[in-house]
Amino acid sequence: MSVLKNTGTPNTIKFSETVTSLFNEAKLLSSYRSRTIVGPDGKSAFDQYAMTQSEFDIFMNSLQYVVVEVFSELAKIANKVSNSVFVDTDESSTNAEVGFSLVDYDSYDENILTIIDKRIRKCYVLYCLTDWWYHSGQDAIAQSYNSQYLECLRVMKDKAWVLIKPLMA
Question: pTM for the whole thing?
C-alpha cells in the first residue's frame, strides 16, 4: 500500500501498489481456493488451479486492464494531472508499481485515504482473480469473484466521494 501526497501544480495524491505484492496476494488467494477443488478422479486439483510464478504473464495482462478500469471511476479528479495512470511492466524489477494520481483538493479527513487505497488494492486483486478463474475454465468461481470485484469497485467509489466532492461546488 502506498498513498503519497505531492505538492506541485496541481497538488496530487498518488495511489500505487507494487506488482510483486499484488501477485503474491493473488497467488495466495488462488491457492486457498484451489485446494477446495476436486478433480473428476476424486483427487485435489490444487496443482492445476493454484496460480504460480509461471502465470505471471496472465496476471500482468489482467493488471494492465484493471488499473485503467479502476482509474476510470475516478478520472474526473485527475484533470490536469499528466501521465496519471502508470503500469510498470518490467518483470525483472521487484519495485515495479501500478496505480494512478489524482488532484488533491485537500478537503477530507486524511484517514479516508487509507480506506480508499485498500479498496483500490482489493479491486485489483479481485479483477485479476476473476480473469484467472475464467481462463482456468472455472466459470462459476470466476462469476463469484466478478461479483465481489463489482461490489468492491462500487464501495471504493462511494468512499472516494469525499475526493470528488470539491468538484461539485
Answer: 0.93
